Amino acid sequence: MTHEVYLASDNWAPAHPLIVQSVIEANEGDAPAYGADPWTLQAEKLIQDTFRAPCKVLFVPTGTGANILALMLACQRHESVLCTDSAHIQYQESGAAEALVGCKLLTVPHRNGKITPQEIRRKLVSERAFGKHSTAPRVISVAQSTEVGTVYTLEELKQLSQLCKEEKLLLHIDGSRLYNAAAALGCGLHELVEAAHADLLSLGGTKNGLLGAEALVLLNPALEKGADHLQKQALQLLSKMRYLSAQYIPFFKEKLWQLLAEQANLRAQEIASFFLEFPQLVLSYPVETNQLFFTAPEATIAAIQEKIRCHLWDKEKRELRFIASWNTSQEEVAAVKRILSGICL
Amino acid sequence: MTHEVYLASDNWAPAHPLIVQSVIEANEGDAPAYGADPWTLQAEKLIQDTFRAPCKVLFVPTGTGANILALMLACQRHESVLCTDSAHIQYQESGAAEALVGCKLLTVPHRNGKITPQEIRRKLVSERAFGKHSTAPRVISVAQSTEVGTVYTLEELKQLSQLCKEEKLLLHIDGSRLYNAAAALGCGLHELVEAAHADLLSLGGTKNGLLGAEALVLLNPALEKGADHLQKQALQLLSKMRYLSAQYIPFFKEKLWQLLAEQANLRAQEIASFFLEFPQLVLSYPVETNQLFFTAPEATIAAIQEKIRCHLWDKEKRELRFIASWNTSQEEVAAVKRILSGICL
Amino acid sequence: MTHEVYLASDNWAPAHPLIVQSVIEANEGDAPAYGADPWTLQAEKLIQDTFRAPCKVLFVPTGTGANILALMLACQRHESVLCTDSAHIQYQESGAAEALVGCKLLTVPHRNGKITPQEIRRKLVSERAFGKHSTAPRVISVAQSTEVGTVYTLEELKQLSQLCKEEKLLLHIDGSRLYNAAAALGCGLHELVEAAHADLLSLGGTKNGLLGAEALVLLNPALEKGADHLQKQALQLLSKMRYLSAQYIPFFKEKLWQLLAEQANLRAQEIASFFLEFPQLVLSYPVETNQLFFTAPEATIAAIQEKIRCHLWDKEKRELRFIASWNTSQEEVAAVKRILSGICL
Amino acid sequence: MTHEVYLASDNWAPAHPLIVQSVIEANEGDAPAYGADPWTLQAEKLIQDTFRAPCKVLFVPTGTGANILALMLACQRHESVLCTDSAHIQYQESGAAEALVGCKLLTVPHRNGKITPQEIRRKLVSERAFGKHSTAPRVISVAQSTEVGTVYTLEELKQLSQLCKEEKLLLHIDGSRLYNAAAALGCGLHELVEAAHADLLSLGGTKNGLLGAEALVLLNPALEKGADHLQKQALQLLSKMRYLSAQYIPFFKEKLWQLLAEQANLRAQEIASFFLEFPQLVLSYPVETNQLFFTAPEATIAAIQEKIRCHLWDKEKRELRFIASWNTSQEEVAAVKRILSGICL
After folding, report:
1. How far C36 CA sits from the closest chain B CA (Å)?
2. How far is the C-alpha of C296 from the C-alpha of C335, rounded, in Å?
3. Looking at the structure, do residues C149 and C281 belong to the same domain, yes or no?
4. B125 contacts on A by Cβ (under 8 Å)
5. Residue whose C-alpha is closest to residue C131's, from D87, A239, D94
6. How confident is the model at residue D7, as a pLDDT?
7. Rounded Cα gap, residues B323 and B291, in angstroms
8. Could you give the number of structural domains in chain C?
9. Are residues B295 and B194 in the same domain?
10. Mean per-residue pLDDT for C42-63?
11. Would you write out chain A's pLDDT as a tens digit for each of its 345 residues?
12. Which of B305, C176, C255, D239 has most Cβ atoms within 10 angstroms of its Cβ?
């Protein structure tokens, strides 16, 4: 570890001590395997309460696993999924949707990381024009917050919901950073899924202070058929499930999710505020959560990468990504300011 | 059949009498099943001679079958295929590549129906930027002639070949209308695959006067592993293979393919020549083979569709497609002129 | 062709002249592609009349294609199919069920080629014992006539139907030789599917005198969802469909299927009758249709194979298979008698 | 938790305190995601040292994941896997091999849980008899220790290795309880894979005292191609990998695996020793590791299940399974004796 500051990813952050404590407490004696233990039941109940819905919850080890399991439950063999060209399911899941689900992803250009009703409608028309020769669109998948750190407003989610209703589509939310979106909007997690009338939610955790736990939340009961079998078949069923689910207990019981997400967002805002002073650093998108994408001259990019561990997101565009995590400290933010000033002034 | 002229598709045309005759002649006594019959051996030999290569030939019932079998042989589970957004494998095979092969299709915008080295390189950079999190690009798939009737020049094919060599990619040609391309360029079929250094060729037939027969031609011997098993597994192995393969015998022996393709191309050129007189009909692409795409005012579109059976290709763009087949007659071309004049003048 | 007699397979036989004639007649002018032509409509109507049901019919090029498409329509991702260990879908489709449908085949030992309710129940208990850790059995697939030439009686089919009802399973019939079964039982084709309450039927043709045509018949309307898309996706949708469907017109209109199947069965019976004279030739199963399986001493096997083209079915058991086709002549039967006498007496 | 003793599964046991400690220690500051952290490198090194081979190690969250990833790397689309009818990959992975890998599992009857060279050879002959119409056998997969608790001797493993060499097959070991086998044989873990010349090893952990961690060990470097991509695609790549891999550090560094496995085996032996006194309890297999399977009269079964939490393995056979874990205490063993005496004497 040779950099001064780490803004590479919220996946690089450690787990919050309360989460570790909860795992330690769950390590008590024998307990039923495969999710029939009391911790899993409690965590599921907490999530149901959080979302104010009698949803079925499948705890899984990876976010990609939650997404793919969602598509398995939502899509028949000939159906397809609409998403942006920057979607995680399209761009960073190593072809899992195609290889494991077998569905086609119909991509449309994103606008600030978001899918727009206009682009969806255009794609629906062209894909449906050839009937059985093309696929049958079935799902819209959106990330909240998006892969570039922006947030769908409640109004935008309602519009997507309306479109889904009109076009008989299901709505899937990739919520690996849902907490950051709720913190940004100052709303409850349940308001996000209610506005969207979401059918399936990939609920994050790992990126917001857990050791490693994600969940697939089935909000539409019609999609539960086969879910237990498919969790196993999709390699997402842990035997000692308690160590996964127990992580969610303090997370929801103490609203730890909110504290951690607010903190990460705040740090990103603080960093973004410096950018006003450095005109050679151009933000690619509004900074609404804990992610910043910005372009800069090549030499500046190189200098920043020497001091701050971060991702060169798009080499051609000379775009860097900073991600603040729950664990990013005020000292680190100050160091970022110092480093950027040294390079840019 | 209530229209005056039929330009809906070369798939609507009947089979040429010599082809039917060849099938009748193959219907003589018992013969080994699954391709071990003398007609299949002869047809394979004729194709090897045509392409001047010791290629393995798999006769299959559909062009989509040939394409999918090609991708099965070329791609590992984590590998992907570059093609245009208008490619048949992307747009009109009902998601077969994803559902059966499991590979991701990486689409790039087409230019006159063609893929360009520049767009390929751009996509390669972005897909490779995230290593194991994305797919490993493995194949470039191009249609010759393209889905919009244009033709890659020999020089363009050489450039693609060079790019494949540099980037360690395989080249697949979807040649469902390869004959029309060769006729347009005035070259031999073998020159097309040689220029491209193609590894796999989906060789058409049905659209150029056969009753129904296509072939997958394996030009790269390294891809033959498992081919026989996969033909069976991919539902492409006919038991009475002789009736498929026999169709190719007069087709290649008598160079019937050339005669029929030239005729279809010529009819399309004749029709295209009328368009100069009707400025409200705007050709979408250069008419290089047997297909014409054009846009027109809505009322004109409707009037044409009443008299001429053809496909409304893109409703939003008000674009119609005319396809001439080997069987399109000079009388039909004259009728097209009369009808268009009546509508447009 | 160097043997005196050909009993290798009904797939080796030529097409009946009336079938060829029907194809020639269908080769008239332009016609809509992909099954919207009048021949396809007529053939579908004839099949509906034959089975006395408003079934949907998908004409496909191969029997394996019909079987696999049936399983795609019947099975969700976590569901499985019960069949015998000798089933075509298990043993001779190169793993297509697993590779393309992704379903598990739960095999049980056959008794004279047939699946028994007792074995099915035993397998259901063991597979269901572990809930989500195993698959959910969904389909029973039986071949009628079976892969070893035996026939399920109407009573046996009723028992399977009853079991399916009790256990909430679907019934699929692989009817690549359904005609031979009906001829053997002296019943109508409709009586077979009615007795079984079959949900899906792979209806043969190629083995009984066609050039090459099979059909998937959907008897349970609840399974039609997505069928058109899946036919395309599964590489089973021919563009010039008329040449496939037209083959079925004389077949059903003139009840040609019955004549040809009766003839094939009769020839097999005649050959079987000789076996009484040759105690070293031991029939493996009752000869109920057009197939004979028998074991013999190694030297006898070799001598037979020199004169009669037939399949060594099981080397270890020294088992040969004879198949009579619609085209097997009385002269050939006489030659078989002569040859066997020469070897065995 | 209402039973006196828990012998349901080694998956029910808690994690060993040293394992928990190692996870706590790994929770220090930022660390690279997806396996590029120092704990993962150290754990991989320890495994390489343990197996005395420069093997590539992929840490994964589930044993089913390790198995399926192994088959993805080993099998082409048309290839198949030989295993027993009691294999975990066949019976208790909810059809994942078929659904995700697409390969056929060719099952053969087990003898005391083991696959035999004789049965393998028989299956090879029958599957290969029909060439492209069947699958191409490619992998033998064995569990060590087996699903019924028995152990392949080093000599038996050598025989399998020899057979693989002769028949050009790969060998996969499902080692979810490899430690118990090594403890039973009193040999090193490396001796097991060396005797078998194993190409791929699913290395357990969760069942032997970890919180939840498994690994796929690639012993044959030719199989590494695409492994990183496939780990991601198969939903087996954790972002915060350190919490998985850190579990293995004390496990191998301190040879904790051996201590825990020996203890579990010993407890099972102690329990097995009581069975001599109760003739109505009939062991199904020799008790070689930490599992006991036994049959008993129905009333006895019911009485045992009331006091001891265990699995009714086969209802029809009235067979129970006891599994001792690293955490099974001498007090529990004594309680088992008391309970069984109360019921059986």
Report:
1. 10
2. 19
3. no
4. 315-316
5. D94
6. 97
7. 5
8. 2
9. no
10. 98
11. 578 899 999 999 999 999 999 999 999 999 999 999 999 999 999 999 999 999 999 999 999 999 999 999 999 999 999 999 999 999 999 999 999 999 999 999 999 999 999 999 999 999 999 999 999 999 999 999 999 999 999 999 999 999 999 999 999 999 999 999 999 999 999 999 999 999 999 999 999 999 999 999 999 999 999 999 999 999 999 999 999 999 999 999 999 999 999 999 999 999 999 999 999 999 999 999 999 999 999 999 999 999 999 999 999 999 999 999 999 999 999 999 999 999 998
12. C176
Nearest to C80 by CA among A96, D105, A136: D105
Helix H segments across C200-317?
A: 227-233, 242-245, 248-253, 256-274, 298-307
> In sequence order, what are the beta bridge partners of A84?
A108
Give the C-alpha separation, D62 to D51, whole Å.
Answer: 21
CATH classification at residue A340: 3.90.1150.10
Helix (H) or strand (E) holding D66: helix D63-74
pLDDT surpassing 70 at residue C1: no
Q: Which chains touch A (3 or more CB pairs under 8 A)?
A: B, C, D
B243 and B101, same domain (yes or no)? yes
CA distance A133 to chain B (A): 5
Asked if residue B96 and residue B164 are part of one domain, the reply reads: yes
Chain B CA closest to residue C20: B24
Q: Domain containing B202 — which CATH number?
A: 3.40.640.10
Angstroms from B229 CA to nearest CA on chain A: 20
Q: Is the bond into B86 cis (omega within 30 degrees of 0)?
A: no
Given C230, C253, C276, which residue is the final one in a domain? C253
Please report residues of A whose CB lies closer than 8 A to that of D207: 239
| Host H or E run for residue B125 | helix B117-128
Q: Which domain holds residue C315?
A: 5-12+257-344
Facing residue for C33 by CB, picked from B12, B240, B327: B12
Q: D3 in helix, strand or coil?
A: coil
- In single-letter form, the type of residue at position C164 comes to C
Q: Give Rg (Cα) of chain B.
A: 20
Alpha-carbon span B288 to A335, nearest angstrom? 62
Asked if B205 and B333 sit in the same domain, the reply is no
Rounded-to-integer distance, Cα B131 and Cα A190, Å = 35
Q: Which of B9, B235, B321, B325 to mutate to test the interface with C (most CBs of C within 10 A)?
A: B235
Neighbours of chain C (3+ CB pairs under 8 A): A, B, D
User: From CA B39, how far away is CA B59, in angstroms rounded?
Assistant: 11
Strand partners, C58: C216
- Co-location of A113 and A245 in the same domain: yes
Nearest CA in chain A to B79: A95
Count of other CB atoms within 10 angstroms of residue B230: 25
pLDDT value, residue D1: 55
Do residue A265 and residue A130 come from a single domain? no
Q: What is the mean pLDDT of chain A?
A: 97
pLDDT digits 0-9 by tens, A254-307 = 999 999 999 999 999 999 999 999 999 999 999 999 999 999 999 999 999 999
Chain B nearest-CA distance from A98, in A, is: 5
CA distance D291 to D265: 8
Residues C107 and C234 in one domain: yes
Nearest CA in chain C to A237: C133
DSSP class of B208: G
Of D34, D78, D228, the CB nearest to B226: D78
- Give the residue from A253, A270, A305 where a domain finishes: A253
